[in-house]
Write a structure and sequence with these properties.
heterodimer; A: mainly alpha; B: alpha/beta; Rossmann fold; 21 helices; 14 strands; 40% helix; binds iron/sulfur cluster
């Protein structure tokens, strides 16, 4: 358990310090971004197929490719995990990023009805 | 993460919720400063007004336009000499400032007639310029002048001109940020979709939230062109009015300053389905990742990689020369909005400095989320500080340098803290690979300036050493360095030109053939 927590902390640190996609200004937008980008990242990490079909998909995919490359470069342990472990890890990571940026966020603007 | 109460603001208890210290192991769900709220009465804010945000930040960088403020001349103060968003048409928009010069009598009798005369006079004085933006100010908004009606009348009488009306008087929002929002929405509502552009590449972007401070956007446009990407418009640095009316035809919006321009990207996404890709143009690693991502969107990553390799090989040894000399220096990162998160992590990683405080004048809570996430533990984060709080923070944190605007910057100098102008730069551009080295050089020059060292002595009480000889920045910096660093042959000081932007205007780019039909 501690082991997975430590691993998630490393991935979280990268996302929070280096990425911008998780910080769009409305809760629904953050939800979309987190869901799509981390879903595609999981597929890529597990060497599964993803073909972007719309321009929006392409943007998610671009962010996902960049994220997975960074994860593999910085944290070599990630490539040693098996598929199930990778999926579990990414699921827990998504939960954590959702918490930091949406459900646990203190940003009062997230639920502004405009946009 | 504990909230931080400034001693000087104990008499304004509401201020306590506007500052936090990032403690070990803490994150943004534990405490977040309030933001984008009306300044608390009694707190002398350093913010600008909503007119300033609309005109001086976003409107005026448009280069081929007469920018006319409808109001007293005082509102236009922040134009000449204070802004450095240059343009490749001889800085037309910086050289001339226009105001309708509203006086007391106009407040009583109305200023519309005078406004119309002013508009016509300005077009006649500059017959080659056919585009104008009109900005509302507090006084003319309060008397209810109908600028749209006047603009329509003039456009009917002068069919070859086009006028954009921006109704963002100073009081429309808590800070300049309100003005950013208003002008974004007004532009997409009133102007986007009116011009059909010539598409010259298979890969077309708008570069949004970039204001060409000392040439930043020209540097970035150079990178995009080298990759064969057409920059249809830049919102708004060095941007052209008619190009910006064609924003709807881009395939991708590349967004730099999300604080000031996410609104138009969000609208373009909803209305035209153009996605938004947020990037960081500052710092080698973030910039390389950003260029790679834009290229990957179009499937031309190899072009990005070639550019990244070339630029990194040319400039990295120079960045590292400065990093060796800046390591461990304490920095207060106190810009207006987006630079707090653009820089918070990368200056630490690539220049070795310690960010001990971040603040934002007009940022929203989202900017603080990004900024606090990106800075290291122990940093003090402040929203909309007043001058006394800034002074208290500087006295207690003892930074080696602060990056801020010119007003708080002058205050810093008075208490012997060197500052760099985070909005207008010192010797920019600071974007791009070479630009990032220029930023490092400016930091180095500020911290190690012999004049700054002299200013630390108080002639009314300190003993003034008279036996010391001449010193240079290099001598001061070297004093703390190991011999192998001083003599490291693979590192070198900045070797670029004084002006690294002008030559870009005449540059010839590779001809990547367009394959798709329009
Ligand atoms: S607050 Fe009003 S009067 Fe003051 S500069 Fe802004 S627009 Fe002009």
């Amino acid at each position: 358990m501690d082991d997975i927590k430590g691993k998630i902390a490393q991935l979280e640190d990268y996302i929070m310090k280096k990425c911008l996609w998780q910080f769009n200004s409305r809760a629904w937008d953050r939800k979309d971004q987190n869901e799509n980008i981390l879903k595609i990242s999981t597929l890529l990490l597990c060497e599964e197929h993803f073909i972007p079909e719309t321009p929006a998909d392409r943007c998610y995919w671009v962010e996902a490719v960049s994220l997975v490359d960074a994860f593999k470069n910085r944290y070599p342990w990630i490539s040693a995990l098996n598929k199930t472990e990778k999926k579990e890890l990414m699921e827990a990571l998504k939960e954590r990023i959702d918490f930091l940026t949406i459900t646990g966020s203190l940003n009062k603007e997230l639920t502004d009805p405009l946009y | 993460m504990p909230y931080h109460e400034f001693k000087c603001s104990e008499c304004i208890p509401e201020r306590k919720m506007h500052a936090v210290v990032k403690g070990p192991g803490e994150d943004i769900t534990m405490a977040l400063p309030l933001g984008y709220l009306n300044t608390i009465p009694g707190s002398i804010s350093e913010r600008g007004c909503a007119y300033c945000g609309a005109k001086h930040v976003i409107g005026t960088p448009m280069k081929d336009v007469i920018h006319l403020s409808h109001g007293p001349v005082g509102c236009t103060y922040d134009t000449w000499q204070t802004k450095r968003y240059i343009s490749d048409n001889d800085n037309f928009q910086l050289k001339y400032t226009y105001a309708s010069d509203v006086k007391e009598k106009n407040i009583v009798f109305g200023a519309e007639k005078m406004l119309k005369q002013n508009i016509i006079e300005a077009f006649k004085a500059f017959p080659k310029i056919k585009r104008m933006t009109l900005y509302q100010t507090c006084a003319t908004a309060l008397i209810g002048d109908d600028m749209n009606a006047i603009a329509d009348e003039v456009m009917e009488e002068m069919p070859d001109v086009d006028i954009f009306v921006c109704n963002s008087p100073g009081f429309r929002g808590p800070s300049q940020s309100g003005g950013h929002h208003t002008i974004n929405i007004a532009w997409i509502k009133d102007k986007v979709g009116q011009v059909e552009p010539k598409i010259t590449s298979d890969y077309v972007i708008n570069y949004v939230g970039e204001y060409n401070i000392q040439g930043d956007s020209e540097v970035m446009a150079d990178y995009f062109r080298r990759m064969g990407i057409q920059v249809l418009s830049t919102f708004t640095g060095n941007g052209s009015y008619d190009d910006l009316r064609a924003m709807h035809r881009a395939q991708l919006n590349v967004l730099e300053c999300a604080r000031s321009a996410e609104y138009i990207c969000n609208e373009l996404r909803v209305r035209y389905g153009t996605p938004r890709l947020d990037i960081d143009g500052f710092g080698f690693e973030p910039l390389s990742n950003s260029l790679r991502k834009v290229a990957m969107f179009f499937g031309i990553e190899d072009r990005a990689q070639a550019l990244i390799d070339e630029e990194t090989a040319r400039w990295k040894p120079e960045l590292d020369w400065y990093k060796e000399r800046l390591k461990g220096k304490k920095v207060c990162l106190w810009p207006g909005g987006s630079k707090l998160w653009h820089w918070a992590n990368v200056i630490h990683e690539e220049m070795g400095v310690e960010v001990i405080s971040v603040y934002t004048k007009f940022g929203h809570q989202g900017d603080m989320e990004k900024g606090i996430s990106r800075c290291e533990e122990g940093a003090l984060a402040i929203d909309d500080p007043n001058e006394l709080e800034s002074v208290e923070a500087m006295l207690s944190l003892k930074p080696d340098i602060i990056f801020t605007g010119k007003r708080p910057g002058e205050v810093a100098k008075k208490i012997r803290v060197p500052y760099l102008n985070a909005h207008a730069y010192h010797n920019g551009p600071w974007k791009g690979y070479e630009g990032w080295v220029r930023f490092a050089r400016d930091i180095y020059n500020a911290i190690y300036s012999p004049i700054h060292q002299l200013s630390l002595l108080d002639i009314s009480k300190d003993e003034i050493p008279t036996g010391n000889g001449f010193v240079t920045s290099g001598m001061i910096a070297n004093a703390g360095l190991a011999e192998e660093v001083i003599s490291a042959g693979d590192l070198r000081q900045y070797s670029g030109k004084y002006d690294c932007v002008s030559d870009l205007k005449n540059k010839i780019y590779p001809d990547f053939k367009k394959v798709t039909e329009e």
